[in-house]
């Protein structure tokens, strides 16, 4: 490296643009040298070293204002700050890897985003007589539950999976699936609502379903997604809620 270099060569050495160097000058991050007799600013090896440090911190996500503070910090303060930057960067990398895992799962198919046990259960639903519409809805809803409530999702899943081992409860779910295309005022909707309420009280001993006693808005969002696809399901849900509220 020459003893004195132009801004263009400095930019090349540090791997940044000339515009970036000028921004760093304006922000007070990199001292701006005086012009020589020819009117050009000439930079030294120290400028290049400082610029590379600034670029590294900026690429790690450190705000420019914070970099300016670090440039004025003591050696000990600078080391402590770098340790914190490293810790934060590690957490960001971990988060990005998790995001990448979810993206790859999404690209491979929705079932890849769920635990194998849940994916296997959903793949078996058609064998039990459930419609493709019901399986797709269940898949999307379990993706939502596992993404937002990972601590309770497994318990909720096991509760539903166990319910389907009971022939009477399984038939109730199947009837719920098939009610999708019924007229909202079909008498079968009223009958199904009564069966759901009775089964809920017998299974749980109260009107409270698993996962309902939380401060989360997710249960309401899930029920809203279910209701949105069918007027019959909307009326069914209204009847169930009304009857449970009076128990």
From TrEMBL:
Entry-linked Pfam families: MerR (PF00376)
Domain (HTH merR-type): residue spans on this chain: 4-73
Keywords, alphabetical: DNA-binding
Family annotation (SMART domains): HTH_MERR
UniProt GO molecular function: DNA binding; DNA-binding transcription factor activity
Taxonomic superkingdom: Bacteria
Residue ranges of the TM segments: none
SUPFAM superfamilies, alphabetized: Putative DNA-binding domain
CDD domains: HTH_MerR-like
Name recorded for this polypeptide: MerR family transcriptional regulator
Organism field: Planotetraspora thailandica
Organismal lineage: Bacteria, Bacillati, Actinomycetota, Actinomycetes, Streptosporangiales
């Amino acid at each position: 490296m020459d003893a004195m270099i132009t801004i263009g060569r400095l930019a090349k050495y540090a791997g940044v643009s000339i515009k970036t160097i000028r921004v760093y000058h304006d922000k007070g991050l990199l001292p701006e040298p005086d012009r020589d007799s020819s009117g050009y600013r000439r930079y030294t090896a120290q400028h290049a070293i400082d610029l590379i440090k600034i670029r590294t911190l900026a690429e790690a996500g450190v705000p420019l204002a914070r970099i300016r503070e670090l440039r004025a910090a003591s050696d000990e303060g600078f080391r402590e700050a770098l340790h914190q930057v490293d810790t934060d960067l590690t957490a960001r990398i971990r988060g990005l890897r998790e995001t990448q895992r979810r993206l790859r799962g999404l690209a491979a198919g929705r079932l890849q985003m769920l635990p194998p046990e849940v994916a296997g259960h959903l793949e078996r639903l058609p064998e039990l007589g459930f419609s493709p519409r019901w399986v797709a809805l269940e898949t999307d809803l379990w993706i939502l539950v596992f993404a937002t409530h990972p601590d309770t999702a497994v318990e909720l899943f096991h509760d539903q999976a166990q319910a389907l081992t009971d022939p009477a409860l399984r038939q109730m779910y199947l009837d719920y699936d098939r009610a999708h295309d019924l007229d909202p005022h079909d008498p079968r909707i009223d009958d199904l609502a009564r069966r759901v309420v009775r089964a809920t009280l017998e299974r749980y001993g109260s009107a409270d379903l698993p996962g309902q006693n939380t401060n989360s808005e997710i249960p309401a969002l899930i029920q809203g997604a279910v209701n949105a696809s069918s007027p019959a399901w909307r009326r069914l849900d209204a009847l169930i809620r009304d009857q449970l509220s009076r128990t």
